[in-house]
Amino acid sequence: MNKNLTLTLAIAITLCLILAAGCTGTSSNSGTCPVPSPQAGLKSYTPVNINATPIQYKEVNGVKLAYREFGSGEPLLMITGFGNTMNSWNETFIGILASKYHVYIYDPRGMGYSSDTNATPVFSQFSDDAAAMIQALGYDSMHVYGVSMGSSTAQQLVIDHPERVRKLVLDSVTYSMRIPETKLLLALNENISTNPSQPVGTRREAQANLEWNGSWDKLSGIKKDVMLVEGTADILTPDAISVKMAGQINGSWVVRFKGLPHFGSKYAPVQYGENALDFLGMNESPLGN
């Protein structure tokens, strides 16, 4: 591995570990994460208190999935990213979404408060879990917001179980980690998958990422309203990938936030939250219908 790639990979691994450690970027944050200064003209929102919200459980596919819920309205399922738990969401971001929607956040199998089996999961299992979770919570379908690895799960969900998805947001997304644009993401997962110092659940997620065959051939078959969201400073899933994917998903949106990194809702929760509300609340039916 050349020196430049080694240095960049080290930065990427550090970024991933910071995100996995639960950097939220709320006003109560300890200041360890890079949060943009408040900008004039942005509305003020009340953050939720994730840790103070009761944990509940649903049994799906042989495991217990832990979840929390906020707000009221149409249901919105949030699928978090690699090495993260439901505690990793930015509390202002979730509060904005919960101002209009009934928001559900959960720990994937083997992570956080959720249980696991001895088997290494694959993405079809993650998508089956999300589909079963939607039903266990009493719904036929939900809006779905996936970020990072969660956006891969969300893609697999809409491919495997399209009837469970209303509108879909894919944030910090790729259709494969085995493409030139995601060489850092690939190296990151290869490193963590065999690193005994990492938690078992995180290593298993890395192994699942490495075994995922990607979604490119299935993207053109997605018939839902889809928005792809990306930061232009994302070195793990560069924004050019979202543009390429949008060309495959008929009628999809692409929103790029200038200068923001991977998992940008941690750093600009108001902008990301309002963007999601605009998309989810818009009537995209053809004129005259």
In summary, what is this structure?
The protein is α/β, with parallel strands linked by helices and 289 residues long.
Question: What does this entry look like structurally?
Answer:
With 289 residues, this protein is of the alpha/beta class. The protein has a single domain (3-20, 54-281), classed as Rossmann fold, CATH 3.40.50. 35% of the residues lie in helices and 17% in strands. It has nine helices and eight strands. The chain has helices spanning 3-20, 91-98, 123-136, 149-160, 183-193, 200-211, 216-219, 239-246, 269-281, and strands at residues 56-60, 63-70, 74-79, 101-106, 142-147, 165-171, 226-231, 253-257. Strands 1-2-4-3-5-6-7-8 form an eight-stranded mixed sheet, with helices on both faces. α8 (239-246) links the parallel β7 and β8. α1 (3-20) packs across α5 (183-193) and α3 (123-136) packs across α4 (149-160). It is globular and about 45 Å long. Mean pLDDT is 88; it is low at 1-38.
Topology (elements, then pairings):
Blueprint: H1 3-20, E1 56-60, E2 63-70, E3 74-79, H2 91-98, E4 101-106, H3 123-136, E5 142-147, H4 149-160, E6 165-171, H5 183-193, H6 200-211, H7 216-219, E7 226-231, H8 239-246, E8 253-257, H9 269-281
Parallel strand pairs: 3-4, 3-5, 5-6, 6-7, 7-8
Antiparallel strand pairs: 1-2, 2-4
Helix pairs in contact: 1-5, 2-9, 3-4, 5-6
Quick tags:
alpha/beta, 8 strands, 35% helix, Rossmann fold, 289 residues, disordered N terminus, globular
